[in-house]
Automatic annotation (TrEMBL):
Leader sequence residues: none
Species of provenance: Vicingus serpentipes
Gene Ontology CC terms, in alphabetical order: cytoplasm
Annotated keywords: Hydrolase, Pyridine nucleotide biosynthesis, Pyridoxal phosphate
Catalytic activity: 3-hydroxy-L-kynurenine + H2O = 3-hydroxyanthranilate + L-alanine + H(+); L-kynurenine + H2O = anthranilate + L-alanine + H(+)
N6-(pyridoxal phosphate)lysine: residues carrying this PTM: 244
Protein role: Catalyzes the cleavage of L-kynurenine (L-Kyn) and L-3-hydroxykynurenine (L-3OHKyn) into anthranilic acid (AA) and 3-hydroxyanthranilic acid (3-OHAA), respectively.
InterPro entries the record matches: Kynureninase, PyrdxlP-dep_Trfase, PyrdxlP-dep_Trfase_major, PyrdxlP-dep_Trfase_small
UniProt name for this protein: Kynureninase
Superkingdom as given in the UniProt entry: Bacteria
Family note: Belongs to the kynureninase family.
Length: 427
């Protein structure tokens, strides 16, 4: 696309946008009477205006039915989680039986690692990316310690090469091959939270399986953001939160994926709870766990209906729009943000200051997020953007993360951001 740094161009693109009306389905934060430019959907997605109605349905049924709401409400709670299987499976490229919505992200990660990190004296190592999101680091560390192992010896971290910002794919594959039969599990954030880099999950999974290891991904920054084909890629397991690109509210319920070949393995070790037990005999209350032959077997407790109602409000929007249209707009919108930043950066030529986009330019290696290193600037730049109504994200020492989300951000948002950024730099 031939981008132009003009309000006329931005408004023209918005007028032609087939998803333009969806912005009106979300609450855009207003601060001091002024609508903000919200670029932190990679941290917390905006609230769909339908969310309150979805939650109120369950509150009303709770008031009307009490415990009988499990069977007689408008959305009977006994099977509430089952409504998510088909639409969420489309978002992550899975079969419905391979997907379950439950718990929160790090809870699900730990539950899945119980099944897919099974260390032996010979095969005990876990491979992950260096400086993964802290929750992932802590989960891996404690899984290793719980097995009586030393994290310094058992965890392999792959970092960018000296002077580079992102991790080379060949370095991940080489590390897997080098670990060989000592490798028990690969667990990588499918999209790096800091740089926005998307890893080649298909090739990583193939490499892990070639040496006999399981392979899984934390898709906190992937679900609802990038194209995923978890079943086709033969991924063993994955999990994700719903409060970022899936717009399901702070601390919203998480999702998990288990490939069908593992779903059918009732002998696979796992932590058990009654909601993962065969539902036809669940209420017989008998001893002996009988896991369902689906990802539901990893459920431990019955569904948190109120947070799931918020999740359903957003998932219904995704079902209506479809990932194909979202991905198409995503490229145009984030591409426009890159263009604006590059345009402004060119004006800094000849100075000791610059704006460096560290997110990969190759669309196979990125999604919505654009991460910028502001060389020569401190947090005062970020604070000035915030004061002018830009809600973005700061990471020490000098990184600004932004994610224009195709469901509710506009080209005019991006243009206006560019004007505010230009003025802030002059200050």
């Amino acid at each position: 696309m031939n981008y132009q740094n003009s309000l006329e161009f931005a408004r023209q693109q918005d007028e032609q946008d087939e998803l333009k009306d969806y912005r009106n389905k979300f609450y855009i934060p207003v601060i001091d009477g002024k609508e903000t430019i919200y670029f932190t959907g990679n941290s917390l997605g905006l609230q769909p205006k339908s969310t309150k109605d979805y939650i109120n349905i369950e509150l009303e049924d709770w008031a009307k039915w009490g415990v009988e709401g499990h069977f007689h409400g408008r959305n009977p709670w006994f099977a509430y989680h089952e409504m998510f299987a088909a639409p969420v499976a489309k978002i992550v490229g899975a079969l419905p039986k391979e997907v379950v919505v439950m718990n929160n992200l790090t809870v699900n990660l730990n539950l899945l690692l119980v099944s897919f990190y099974r260390p032996t004296p010979q095969r005990y190592k876990i491979l992950c990316e260096a400086k993964a999101f802290p929750s992932d680091q802590y989960a891996l560390e404690m899984q290793v310690k719980s097995a009586g192992l030393n994290p310094d010896e058992a965890i392999i971290e792959i970092a960018p090469r000296e002077g580079e910002r992102t991790i080379r794919h060949e370095d991940i594959i080489s590390a897997i091959e080098e670990a060989g039969d000592t490798l028990a599990c690969v667990m990588i954030g499918g999209v790096n939270y800091f740089t926005g880099q998307v890893f080649d999950m298909k090739a990583i999974t193939e490499a892990a399986h070639k040496v006999g290891a399981n392979c899984g991904f934390d898709l906190a920054h992937g679900a609802g953001n990038i194209e995923l084909k978890l079943h086709e890629w033969n991924v063993d397991f994955a999990c994700w939160c719903s409060y970022k690109y899936l717009n399901s509210g702070p601390g919203g319920v998480s999702g998990a994926f288990v490939h069908e070949r593992h779903c059918n393995n009732t002998d696979l070790p796992r932590f058990a709870g009654w909601w993962g037990h065969d539902k036809d005999s669940r209420f017989l209350m008998e001893k002996g766990f009988q896991p369902m032959k689906s990802a539901e077997a990893w459920q431990m407790s019955n569904a948190p209906i109120l947070t799931m109602a918020a999740h359903k409000a957003s998932i219904d929007i995704f079902e209506e729009v479809g990932m194909e249209k979202l991905l198409k707009k995503q490229k145009a919108l984030s591409g426009y943000l890159e263009f604006i930043v590059d345009n402004i950066n060119a004006s800094l030529s000849g100075t000791d200051k610059s704006l460096e986009i560290i997110t990969p330019r190759n669309w196979k290696e990125r999604g919505c997020q654009v991460s910028v290193i502001a060389h020569g600037y401190g947090k005062d730049l970020f604070n000035e953007l915030t004061n002018e109504g830009v809600i973005s994200d700061w990471r020490e020492p000098n990184a600004i993360r932004m994610a224009p989300v195709p469901l509710y951000n506009s080209f005019e948002d991006v243009y206006r951001f560019g004007q505010i950024l230009s003025n802030a730099l002059k200050k």
